[in-house]
């Protein structure tokens, strides 16, 4: 998307990447765009948009991720500094917002407890049926021309415990910065 998030009268380029990186580029001169800000999310970004969403007068960037989470970055100041010995007083609007969020959190906690209890009762009944849930998998296998390697990217809406890669030909695995996996090699019986 393009949006004037910096408020300088020139639209910035907002980019959401497959690796979860949000970037804001500024066009300060006629040359190449300059990276002004970046922010890392834990999953790929499906869409990104700039606008005024939460509070009038403060622009925001909203990003939707692969699993459907919405993440927002705002220009509204979130910290307020007070002088020495000065108490920080919250405005009535902020107090009502905090109260509303606390009520919503309590409601959600009660709902989670009810659903857990319902699930436990149904799983202990004699008519309970066990089934494996289906997951949508976002996978990409792309060639990196610079170093003649392939990147395998797997995303699922739950945590990934193991990935098994089996090949008929020798494979060299390269480590990347974002990788937190522990690699284990084992030979395979050819028959």
Low-confidence stretches: none
Strand order of the largest sheet: 1-2-3-4
Q: Roughly what fraction of the amino acids lie in strands?
A: 25-35%
How would the global form be characterised? Answer: flat
- Written as H for each helix and E for each strand, in order along the chain, the element string is EEEEEEEHEE
| Average pLDDT figure | 82
Largest sheet: 4 strands, antiparallel
If helices are DSSP runs of H or I spanning 4 or more residues, what is the number of helices? 1
Structural category: alpha+beta
- First-last Cα distance: 53 Å
Q: How many beta-strand runs?
A: 9
Helix content: 10-25%
Radius of gyration: 24 Å
Pfam families: BBS7_GAE, Beta-prop_BBS7
Organism: Oreotrochilus melanogaster
Domain BBS7 GAE: 133-190
Coiled coil: 91-118
Structure description:
- It is a single chain.
- By secondary structure, the chain is α+β, with helices and mostly antiparallel strands.
- The protein has a domain at 2-74.
- It is built from one helix and nine strands, in the order E-E-E-E-E-E-E-H-E-E.
- The strands form three sheets. It has a four-stranded antiparallel beta sheet, with no helix packed on it.
- The chain is flat and about 70 Å long.
- Keywords: Coiled coil.
Question: How would you describe this structure in keywords?
Answer:
flat, 191 residues, 28% strand
């Amino acid at each position: 998307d393009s949006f004037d998030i910096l408020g300088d009268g020139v639209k910035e380029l907002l980019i959401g990447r497959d690796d979860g990186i949000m970037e804001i580029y500024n066009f300060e001169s006629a040359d190449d765009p300059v990276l002004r800000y970046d922010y890392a999310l834990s999953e790929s970004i499906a869409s990104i948009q700039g606008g005024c969403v939460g509070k009038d007068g403060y622009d925001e960037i909203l990003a939707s991720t692969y699993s459907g989470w919405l993440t927002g970055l705002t220009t509204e100041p979130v910290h307020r500094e007070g002088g020495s010995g000065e108490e920080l007083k919250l405005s009535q609007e902020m107090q009502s917002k905090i109260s509303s969020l606390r009520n919503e959190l309590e409601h959600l906690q009660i709902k989670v407890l009810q659903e857990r209890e319902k699930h436990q009762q149904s799983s202990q009944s004699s008519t309970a049926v066990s089934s494996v849930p289906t997951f949508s998998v976002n996978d990409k296998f792309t060639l990196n021309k610079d170093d003649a390697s392939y990147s395998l990217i797997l995303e699922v809406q739950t945590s990934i415990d193991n990935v098994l890669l089996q090949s008929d030909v020798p494979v060299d695995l390269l480590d990347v910065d974002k990788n937190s996996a522990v690699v284990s090699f084992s030979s395979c019986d050819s028959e």
